[in-house]
Design goal:
The structure is a homodimer of 352-residue chains.
Chain A: E1 2-10, H1 14-32, E2 36-41, H2 46-52, H3 60-64, E3 69-74, H4 82-96, E4 101-107, E5 123-129, E6 133-142, E7 150-158, H5 159-176, E8 180-184, H6 192-204, E9 212-216, H7 217-226, E10 233-236, H8 238-251, E11 259-263, E12 271-275, H9 292-304, H10 308-324, H11 338-351
The structure holds 3-isopropylmalic acid (2 copies).
One 3-isopropylmalic acid (IPM) sits between chains A (86, 242, 276) and B (187-188, 218).
């Protein structure tokens, strides 16, 4: 079986870290023997924009549809405004391909740098709504520049969108025997979050075997640092998911280890795998970017293709490298280069 | 000079912790000799609601106007829905008295329990917008119960409201020689937060002597746990302020130490001082609630009345008790009662 991957290395450190993820994917395929990858590279991103006045080719979305998955490095560069670089590439793909599930594992790997003083078992999966809600882009600016100026930003929560993300989380929890925690804010957001809580309650009735919890986003944010062990599968809205997964990155080793997958569960369109970190222009080209988040995202891709044993083995290989400690990038107090870390993970995978 | 205080002990542990704050206020007044407090108690809250069908007397707001400040314990109790207990008491006072500044110090006191592994200097002041924005309560629910159901929640950001909170933060920073950090999310909330960033930029031009920083809320949330020392005065919206101050509570000793003040800077109406924690019905009446957050809020009240030297001395007294460690409530691994802790702080204040 051959998986067709569209590779968009993107901007800044994107290309450097993506190279290492591909090394690891190839090693997994080689060791297994029953599957392989076929990569096609697309030079889209901010440099492309500076040359062509657009973030991707005109038929870019059409072209991407033919692939089984997209592997993306990072998007964004000084000089190109966010609303272009993000809205015309990253957010566009998430939306048009209806990648409504943003899966972000928050797991403290063995050997990862510890932020919290107490030893906590940190092993949760955040299921973030990825297609609507606070990110709907709907709003209004009235009386611009006048004293009475007022700006409205409207979050749009559909029943369909809210139900399907919550249901996804319950399916995930059921499969793995875990609990589901909903994060919302019904005591202040009196329409959207009251609705979210209702739908969560409704959907939970279909899963009597799954334990459920419900937290206000402020309390959840506090418990992410005081007692993260209480969370297993977490389901939340687009904005809250954005925030809590970055707290998650903070407690589980830093952005250098934060991975994400944008999933279209119907598989009508390709899903996209990308590290959470950005393009980090300040360190681009210096070969010191940490490739572990990109490698973790590659491991999520293996899971997505039904190769869960390899997804898990990649994580174990990463843990070997972290625990060994001699081959890490400067952000983790090491002095290895990006490709040395990628090679170390590949070697560790080989040895198992 | 006598300050007239309306005391609303409220629900759950509210009355227990308020008693201790008042002990400390009285000791400060006694030691100073130039000011005193005159307290009037109001039995408003959920018990009052169960008896009278309302959270406060009909002329409650009118009555409160005659006071210099409100000292509130906690509101909320099982059986009374949040939208009643909060919207008809706590949030009502914040709004109707135009307490548009929510001041929350995030400071790791000497001797406070440490959440983060690294030693960071944590000493920031979060200036949270407290009157509008995401909490405006504006929205719509369409096609209820139908498959096409959609729920809208609209944040309302006025120029007046945005400008005055940002200006407040700059004034605070200027006074204390600190930097100001704005927390927003312009790359996703394309109306409200783009506007916020613009106003921040505009106001900052009036304060060339103040250093400024701007963070996305996700990045800020991560740096609250990875490197909180970079933040001094922080200004942010209602919802983001709610979230980041709870992360702040998490890194600076827990909810037992999280204090807040709801300020009306024009002094047209009274300001309100309240610990951030809730009514904690599970431990109410057991005399084990931690009074330190309520005492810290009392110290903010002393600052507000121009008695900054006493505000600071109360914090030092709290640090003495924390560092001594023998008189702390169970949430801080001690076995003292609420009033023993209050007494210990009062005694420490006496000894200085
Ligand atoms: C770049 C930005 C729009 C994006 C988001 O907010 O979703 C990023 O923070 C993320 O978490 O993937
Ligand atoms: C009780 C709730 C409405 C309130 C808020 O969200 O403002 C609380 O969390 C707070 O931070 O004071």
């Amino acid at each position: 079986e051959t998986f067709k991957i569209a590779v968009i290395p993107g901007d800044g450190i994107g290309p450097e870290v993506i190279d290492e993820g591909i090394k690891v994917l190839n090693k997994a395929a080689e060791l297994d023997g029953s599957f392989s990858f076929d990569y096609t590279y697309f030079p889209w991103g901010c440099e492309f924009y500076n040359e062509h006045g657009k973030m991707m080719d005109d038929d870019g979305m059409e072209t991407l549809k033919q692939f089984d998955a997209i592997y993306l490095g990072a998007v964004g560069y000084p000089g190109v405004p966010d609303h272009i670089s993000l809205r015309e590439l990253l957010i566009r793909i998430r939306k048009e391909f209806d990648q409504y599930v943003n899966l972000r594992p928050i797991k403290l790997l063995k050997g990862a740098p510890q932020t919290l003083k107490k030893d906590h078992t940190i092993d949760m999966l955040v299921v973030r709504e990825n297609s609507e809600g606070e990110y709907s882009g709907s709003g209004e600016r009235l009386f611009q520049g006048k004293p009475e100026e007022v700006v409205l930003q409207t979050g749009v929560f559909s029943r369909k969108g809210t139900e399907r993300i919550i249901r996804y989380a319950f399916e995930e929890a059921k499969k793995t025997g875990k609990s589901v925690t909903s994060i919302s804010k019904g005591n202040a957001l009196n329409y959207s979050m009251v609705f979210w809580d209702e739908v969560f309650e409704e959907v939970s009735r279909d899963y009597p075997e799954v334990d459920t919890y419900s937290y206000l986003v402020d309390a959840a944010s506090m418990f992410f640092v005081l007692d993260p062990g209480r969370f297993e599968v977490v389901v939340t809205s687009n904005l809250f998911g954005d925030i809590v997964t970055d707290i998650g990155a903070g407690i589980a080793g830093g952005l250098g280890l934060a991975a994400g997958a944008n999933i279209n569960p119907t598989r009508e369109y390709p899903s996209m795998f990308e590290p959470v970190h950005g393009s980090a222009p300040d360190i681009a080209g210096k070969k010191i970017a940490n490739p572990l988040a990109a490698i973790w995202s590659a491991s999520q891709m293996l899971d997505f293709f039904g190769q869960e044993q390899w997804g898990a083995r990649v994580l174990t290989a990463m843990e070997d490298v972290l625990q060994d400690g001699s081959t890490l990038t400067p952000d983790m107090n090491g002095n290895a280069s990006t490709d040395q870390v990628g090679q170390a993970v590949t070697d560790a995978l080989d040895k198992k």
